[in-house]
Amino acid sequence: MDLWMLWLVAGFVLVIAELVTGTFYLLVIGIGAFAAAIAAWSGLHSIVQAAVAGIVALAGVWAVHHWHARNRTGRSGDNLLDRGQPVVLEGWANESAGIARVRYRGTSWDARVAPGERPAPGTTLYISGQQGNELVVELSPPAA
User: Fold this and answer.
1) Tens of pLDDT along 53-80?
2) Residue 98, pLDDT score
3) Of 78, 71, 77, residue with least CA distance to 24
4) pLDDT value of position 23
5) Is residue 114 scored above 60 in pLDDT?
6) Inter-helix orientation angle 25-41/3-21, to 10°
7) pTM here?
8) What pLDDT, on the 0 to 100 scale, is given for residue 18?
9) In CATH, what number does 86-138 get?
10) φ, ψ of residue 101 in degrees (nearest 5)
11) What is the DSSP string of the chain?
12) 46-71 and 25-41 helices cross at what angle (nearest 10)?
């Protein structure tokens, strides 16, 4: 099998794998493989083919990274629909670290209480944000 055909197969494999991930990184690496296939078909040396693949792939990865950074929303909690909702403090998981268990929507959640606040169990707190799977709660409702 000719080398240009191997580059072509590698490009198709990467593009098909991209359909599973949806990040566009494998797509641009696949495009780099297609560029190397063109270089191989043109009769260029294998080192030149690899360099073409690498340059196109690196430029594409750089462009995708900057596109993701530019289109990323601000903080992860900016679109938190639960902000301002009341929760009830069930108890402390680690009081010195400010980690508590709260009752919200019929189940228990891990929550991080704002620094300096140590309310008693049964106190109503308000969701002000989220860090991963952990709610951030305060004694007073957050400002709208």
Assistant:
1) 999 999 999 999 998 888 775 555 455 7
2) 87
3) 71
4) 80
5) yes
6) 170
7) 0.53
8) 92
9) 2.40.50.140
10) -110, 130
11) --HHHHHHHHHHHHHHHHHHH-SSHHHHHHHHHHHHHHHHHTT--HHHHHHHHHHHHHHHHHHHHHHHHHH--SSTTTT-TTTT-EEEEEEEEEGGGTEEEEEETTEEEEEEEPTT--PPTT-EEEEEEEETTEEEEESSPPP-
12) 160
Strands 107-113, 134-138: parallel, antiparallel or unpaired by DSSP? parallel
For tokens 């008693």, name the residue. 120
Indicate the length of the chain as a whole number.
144
> How much of the chain exceeds pLDDT 90, in percent?
61
Residue 90 has a pLDDT of: 93
Q: How far apart are CA 44 and CA 69, in angstroms?
A: 36
Cα–Cα distance measured from residue 115 to residue 14, given in angstroms and rounded to the nearest whole number = 47
Q: What is the pLDDT of residue 77?
A: 47
Q: Where are the domains of the chain?
A: 3-71, 86-138
Residue whose structure tokens are 């629909």: 81
Radius of gyration, CA atoms only, the chain: 26
